[in-house]
Sequence to fold (852 residues):
Amino acid sequence: MDDLIRDFLTETTESIGQADNDLVSLEQNPEDGELIGRIFRLVHTVKGTCGFLGLPRLEKVAHAAENVLGRFREKSLAPTEDSIGLVLKAMDSIKTIVAGIEQADGVEHAGDDSALIAHLDALYHGNATPAPAADIAVEPPPAAAPEQIEAAPPSVAVATSEATASVAASAKSAGDAAQTTQPQAAGQSIRVSLDLLEGLMTTVSELVLTRNQLLQALRAQDNPVVQVPLQRLSQIASELQEGIMRTRMQPIGSAWSKLPRLVRDLSVELGKKIDLQMNGAETELDRQVLELIRDPLTHMVRNSADHGLETGAERLAAGKAESGTITLNAYHKGGHIIIEVRDDGRGLPADKIKRKAIQSGILTEAEAAQMSPQQLQALIFRAGFSTAEKVTAVSGRGVGMDVVRTNIERIGGSIELDSREGGGTAFFIKIPLTLAIVSALIVEAAGQRFAIPQIAVSELVLARADQVEEIGGAAVLRLRNRLLPLAKLADTLGIDHPVEAGKNNLIVVAQVYPDKFIPLVERRPLMLPLTLDVAGRALAAAAGLPESVSVAINVPPICLADAHFPDLLMDIASQHRVQPTRITVEITETAAMADPVFTAAQVTRLRIKGVQVSLDDFGTGYASLVELYRMLVSVIKVDRSFVMKLLRDKDAKAIAKAIVRLGSSLDLKVVAEGVENLETLSLLRSWNCDLAQGYHIARPMPAEALPGWIKSWEEKLSIHTFG
Amino acid sequence: MAVSKDMEILIVDDYATMRRIMKNLLVQLGFKNVSEATDGGDAINKLRIKAAGLVISDWNMEPMTGLQLLKEIRADAKLKEVPFIMVTAESKTDNVVAAKAAGVNNYIVKPFNAETLKTKMQSVIGAFD
Fold:
């Protein structure tokens, strides 16, 4: 793509983002002439430049919007919620077109904006009452670029002077025009590509390391000819490092810039009056950290608007101001940045949380009775916990705060909350200023030193000999009654080293997420102990549940390939006193076909012991009917890729139906996976599919929650049967 | 008088893309010494440091508009003679009249190509090829 067009797209994206926020402010201060002037200029410039670049579609939309803004400016048309809403639609269209140009490498996508332009023109000519903005469909941005702003080439504005970089956020409360931030004069900053900055950062890090080596090597020598320039070099290297670090810093306002518009739209959608206050937008932090907290923050603001704040009527009844306030504060505190997300809404209802926790089996009555309101409120960070009365389009899907917490903890941060019923909720997010400097634990293995980021280290254990056990040939550590797989650093890194007995008792316990550890585990003989450990937990949980509840365990090929696997599984089952008939072992079709003869033998072993065997992802591998017949499996699972497309893809429907038929004629149970709605479930039922799984039935939940869920499901079923 | 392609030309626009477009057009026409100012105040400063043979400025800027810049230049004893071309996306008569009154040498409406720019420039600074 032409450089010029790329720059234009970046600049336009920024301008329109700014115009977006200014429009939201304008809605609150319709009389603010300066604001109108600025929005007009931004849109006018975009229009004016389009002509040079051959972007007629963009030009037309910008022109139509500019006309309406021109009438705002002349004060011959009042900026109302409807007219501003319409201009905001035009901004959305512009973003979509810009994203399209970005994707199509500098060429405009064809598209029809005539409805939007007609409405804008009608407003401009003043001969029609404006239609409510919501009537006009704005084409969604192309799928590959859901965030148009991010689609622009990555670049960061670098302030060359001491002046703080310009702040995009310009939230302000009603009537408080003074808070608007002025865009920084363009002359003081230049654009530098992120790659260049990242490259500089790496180079500087290398420089600092080399300096350190040099300092160490020459420390012994008392040679002034070397010492003086060396000190100077050292000083310069430090300054350089600090300077480069600063270029990576961005004001947090850039992560907040979309929030005014978001809150405005939520406010309209939810029918609540909401003020958004943002303080400390100029607080700087590393852009990498900034990227990582953008989504969690957006999620939290949504939550506050949807759950936190009451409706206007409820607020008035409670003696509060009709409009609710969401406040974001950012500030530095001891090497960390603190971000507060506050609302003055209803607060977290400890009693309701308690009831829900008991109902869903997360807590027992006795445990709940012992907990303070604060401890109960903190339960909202648990997976699958949502107190929303009903699922709304905005939030309340139960994948909220636990995901936020996980994301924040991944970058070494923490989140806490403070909430009073009736008095609002405040979340405090504490995150490190930068990920560029990482505290590390230095460890030695095979005579070499390695650094482990401290964020990843949960604890250090000096293990006694009896704490290290062996399961299936792999070492595990028994720590506070949990089995943790052990990996030797040198082996993991593939370094040859002589075996040193008795020196391997220092153990770093690390929290590793599945996307990292599964591949690691697969490379080592740890899959079997891990699978058995998971099976053990599942069976322990099953032991306390009714006999009718069966347990399905996914078994990876490497475990199934172990001749002892059936016996090991039986040992665990008898340990937990679970009948083998309640267990289903799930193997994938692809894995089964890798060595069909051996797999068939293993399946037979399991079936003899009474265990059900299920062929997972059926339809995606190459199982022939003969093999299926020989394999003695008892269940086949229709792969989700067919089930999820059942309603709209007639091929997927035909395949799924054939699998269900095949299963029942071979006397196999058939499970459909990936059932996400009632229509799919009904269709499957009409084919006599035996079982179904998927989000329509239930989302993943902790074992403690199962008894509660079973109870409510049975109630639901009885309603369906008799009602 | 023959126009030297070495003459200093100052582009004033607060929009970077537009400055680049303008600079490209001038380079296309053969001018080598093109500098840029990002707003009216910057333009005044730059003109005081180094005189220019021609100023091409956008109308639509903040805080100082192109028209205000023009007025300041015409009111400045040292700068008042410099030729001034105003660029705008609007061709409203009122605007043209106001710019004329303030002493603009010519007026050019966006979008335009190198040929149009050349014609307008020639009418202000004299012929060149």
